[in-house]
Amino acid sequence: MPRDRVLTVGAIVLGVVLIVIAVIYWAEPAKSLPSFFPGHTAGSRHHHTKHGIAAFLLGIACFVFAWFRSGPKRTAPAA
C-alpha cells in the first residue's frame, strides 16, 4: 500500500474516532465519561462542551487533510 494511501486512510479513521469522542463529550456529564478521558470527574454533572468542540474540529481537520492528500497529483507543465 503506498504511503499516501496509508496516511489518507489513517486520517479518515482518526477523524471518525475524534468525532465520536466529541459526541461523547457533548452527551455525557463529567461523572459518566470514561476514566481515561480528560475531564472525568466523579460526581460532577458538568458537560465538557469545549472538549467536544476541540475534538470535533480536530476530526474535521483530519477529514480535510485526507481530502487534500487524496486529490489528483499535479504534474509539471510540458516545456
The beta-strand count equals 0
Q: The biggest beta sheet, please?
A: none
Global shape: elongated
Helix and strand run: HH
Can you count the helices? 2
Report the sheet-strand fraction. under 5%
| N- and C-termini, Cα separation | 33 Å
Structural class: mainly alpha
Rg from alpha-carbon coordinates: 18 Å
Mean pLDDT: 86
- Helix fraction, binned, reads 55-70%
Name the poorly predicted regions.
none
Structural account:
By secondary structure, the chain is mostly helical. The model has no long low-confidence stretch (mean pLDDT 86). Helix 1 (3-27) runs antiparallel to helix 2. The chain is built from 2 helices and no strands. The two termini are 33 Å apart. The relative contact order is 0.20. 58% of the residues lie in helices and 0% in strands.
List the helices and strands and how they pair.
Layout lengths: L2 H25 L21 H21 L10
Helix pairs in contact: 1-2
Summarize this entry quickly:
The longest helix has 25 residues, at 3-27. 58% of the residues lie in helices and 0% in strands. The two termini are 33 Å apart.
